[in-house]
Amino acid sequence: MFWQEDKNPDAVQIPDDIVDLLFALDCKSIPVDHAYFLSTALHAALPWLGSEPQLAVHTIHGAGSQNGWQRPAHGSDTELLLSRRTKLMIRTPKTRVAELLQHLPGVTLDLAGHPLTVGAGKIKLLTKDATLFARQVVICDVTSDLIDESVFLQGVATQLAALDIVLRKALCGKTMALATPQGSIQTRSLLLAALTAEESIRLQQYGLGAHRLLGCGIFIPHKGIDPVNPGG
Predict the structure, then answer these.
(1) What's the CA gap between 220 and 203, in Å, rounded?
(2) What does the pLDDT read at residue 4?
(3) What pLDDT score was predicted for residue 67?
């Protein structure tokens, strides 16, 4: 008889070679579609940014859709109001942590006329949650306004396999376009469930698809597999 038990996720140690840095920020509002503006401003402040393949910039998100609050319509001409609890998050290799914590605080970034001053930062380890969510994922160069779900999931499965991750449960959300001077980038939100602890950590470390500096392919914990609101 052959009987293989699942590994105990509690026994898996979370490495610190890739971490999230959470920075306080002083900013009243930013464009809802701000990925390009944020990436460009950070690159101007840190010219080496694009040379780190495992560095990623989370897009900035406020509160979820609760207590009557609704996120404004997606676009670069609509504004997202920020609270003091809102953070700027950068996923980075450990080798860049000291430099980011030293040089980013005090820098004021210009996001299309919206000044954002970066405050003190702190380190947050990745998680080993079995369910992860990415607000935007770009698997291939798609120029159509519509991204076929089956084609998208085929691409997801192929890239997960390259990371030695098994696609067991996946839920695609709605499409979203990110504005850039070169044209819009079509994305889909994606939830993956039933990941092992090792797979979860690996997926957060490497991400999925292209445009990591625009907030794409970055996975964060999500509780359960209930309907997903990518705008939260």
Answers:
(1) 10
(2) 43
(3) 43
Q: What angle (nearest 5°) sits at the alpha carbon of residue 129, between those of residues 125 and 135?
A: 85
- Beta bridge partners, 133, equal 191, 220
Return the closest-CA partner of residue 42 out of 93, 97, 116. 116
User: What does each C-alpha distance from 176 to 146, 159, 190, 211, 221 come to in angstroms?
Assistant: 9, 21, 12, 14, 20
3-12, 68-77, 136-145, 193-202: the lowest-pLDDT one: 3-12
DSSP annotation of 145 reads S
User: What beta strand segments (E) does 10-161 contain?
Assistant: 18-26, 29-31, 56-57, 79-81, 87-93, 108-111, 114-125, 132-137
The closest of 159, 195, 200, 46 to 109, measured between CA atoms, is 46
Q: What pLDDT score was predicted for residue 45?
A: 96
Residue 201's H or E segment, with its range, is helix 197-206
